């Protein structure tokens, strides 16, 4: 690097004072300072970008190594599983791994979905009677006969 000491900076300042002149020296010094600041910011930005790219490369390498390890584990599990299935089939003598000897196969569970008959059928009769839910359907004629007002037969109204 360039070794600039205090004596060299004083010499450069004296030469600049003579060449540029005392009137323009503050303006030139301000401009040089701004340019040096911009250069320093540019260099720091470049350094940050380089460090980011290096970190990104390291992360990519780490990702690839993890994916490779995961693939190796998956392959070993698959080979162990297939070996186990073969040895199980040989020991049990079963033709396929789905049917095991001595095991009862049950029908597959079927969800009732939204069958309202199942839902209402599950309600107890005492609850329906207490809450006033009709348990039997009436035909139109039966409903008319049931709810028709009855004629009153009092002796004071005939007359």
From TrEMBL:
InterPro entries: TatA/B/E, TatB. Keywords: Cell inner membrane, Cell membrane, Membrane, Protein transport, Translocation, Transmembrane, Transmembrane helix, Transport. The gene is tatB. HAMAP family: TatB. Residues 63-74 have a biased composition (Basic and acidic residues). One of its GO terms (cellular component) is TAT protein transport complex. Part of the twin-arginine translocation (Tat) system that transports large folded proteins containing a characteristic twin-arginine motif in their signal peptide across membranes. Together with TatC, TatB is part of a receptor directly interacting with Tat signal peptides. TatB may form an oligomeric binding site that transiently accommodates folded Tat precursor proteins before their translocation. This is Sec-independent protein translocase protein TatB.
């Amino acid at each position: 690097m360039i070794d600039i000491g205090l004596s060299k900076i004083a010499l450069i300042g004296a030469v600049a004072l003579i060449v540029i002149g005392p009137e323009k020296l503050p303006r030139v010094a301000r401009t040089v300072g701004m340019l040096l600041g911009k250069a320093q910011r540019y260099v720091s930005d470049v350094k940050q970008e380089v460090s980011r790219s290096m970190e990104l490369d390291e992360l990519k390498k780490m990702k690839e190594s993890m994916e490779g390890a995961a693939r190796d584990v998956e392959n070993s599990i698959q080979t162990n599983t297939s070996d186990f299935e073969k040895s199980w089939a040989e020991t049990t003598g079963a033709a396929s791994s789905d049917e095991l000897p001595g095991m009862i196969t049950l029908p597959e569970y079927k969800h009732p979905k939204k069958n309202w008959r199942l839902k209402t059928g599950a309600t107890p009769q005492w609850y329906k009677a207490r809450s006033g839910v009709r348990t039997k359907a009436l035909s139109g004629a039966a409903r008319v006969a049931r709810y028709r007002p009855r004629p009153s037969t009092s002796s004071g109204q005939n007359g």
